[in-house]
Amino acid sequence: MDKPTINPIQLKEWHELHPYNTKAESDDYYVELSNTLFDTWVKSHLTDKININAIRRVSLYVAAYVEDIKSDFGLWKAFITRHCALYGRRLPFFASAADTNASRPQVTDINFIIWYSLQELTGKPSHQIIPPFLNSLTTVSGLLYEKINKTFDKAPCNKRLTRLFSNPQVYKEFPLLKQLLNWFFSHAYLIEPSTQERIMMNHRIIMDKFKNATDEQKNMFMYGIMQDTIFTYPCGPLALYVKDWLHAMADDTAEAASRYLGIEALQTYHWLVTDITDETVTLDCMQRERVIEVAKSTFKDADKLAKGKSIIICGFVKYDQTWNVSGVISLTDTDNPQIKSIKKVADRSRFADVHRKVYQQFMEANNGKPIAFFGDIEEVNKFFTDKLKWPANDNLATQLSKSRNFILFAEEDKGIMIATNIAEYVKDADNPLYKKEEAERKGVFPFINKGMCPIDLLEYLEDNDMLHDACFLTDGKGFNAEKGQKLLHDNWDFIARMFLNEFYWDEMH
């Protein structure tokens, strides 16, 4: 039986990676290139087990990378520049000469884009690590590079793309910038692989929470949650916030660069109107310790606002020293019975003295070491009651009754952190739970599984070589502990950024 015909990539698919839907002069070349790359990849039969739609999408990403370099769009340049600033080399994993010509495509670049995109699109959802040096992927990278290199000198520039972020009107007017960033976060070729999981999660939240809403209402709610997301969710292979990507793409001396760095985002909260003048409205956040002043003209129904009574529900973004509404505004007031359940979370700095005291207690009880290991929750509770003289915590015992192999870790500015099910991976003279074979096979989990290990603890373990046996899969040719260990520890911070994403930053701020 003949295999079904695979439809060629269409202009519409190419436009999904661009912030416009009218044809640019260069589009025909890059659609044709996308199809050439796609056909070459599929006909190689090297990755037949990979979903054909994923291959199709990644072929588009590689063509967009070529367009980026030829047009000097700046996204790829921003990535390699930031990676080099962080880690002293051009790319993670893949060797590349320091004097590599950044104005031409490189086979190592293509290899990385294919690996990163497939890891995000197919590996992460299935909780699998795709080895960076998988033979089939490196071979495909070489085949695609040959096709690209043959015609690169004739490749056209996309002037429309190049002018996007350099247009003064865009960076001087927040509504225009926000419109562009909605595309950038969701569909820019180097960003899209990392954000699709979060966008789908947002969609599920809306579908579950507002089952009885109309499609129009659901779209409005989705818009609101996405405006929060694009400014507060780290994205791309380096898990940077959009403002940092924009700054990296801009000339450091340009006016736009300083404006981008000044972006500050506040997610959707309940804000109590505490003061109203002819020009401004003062808002006090009901969930966080934050007061902001917003231009009165921002609110269409400003005349209906009442001091001390009106409550505004929305998110805000500070741009060019001005607070702007980022999503959808809802209004209620203090008579709403649901408002009574809202409690303000105290700023963490208020607990500085408490954290310091707890840290000192822990260090005294644990022979001066900030880390301790326990087999089960009963041992943890015994440490709390016998060593720290705390009352027994029945709630903690119930919540963690099915967990094992605990680590307690103390820091002066954060108190005590707890991690479960990872102590067997940690090599330490005081850790009786360590198992070498488990450490080799599963020690990579704290680097790649969100919420498994606080980033502060992970950094401590790595700095003290306590996860020495942990391995990252290398080439798919069988387990090689030595190669896997080197690959992981040479690139551990990048791996943690890319896999942990928002959890990489969660404890660092």
From TrEMBL:
It holds the Pfam family DUF3843. InterPro entries: DUF3843. This is DUF3843 family protein. It comes from Candidatus Avibacteroides avistercoris.
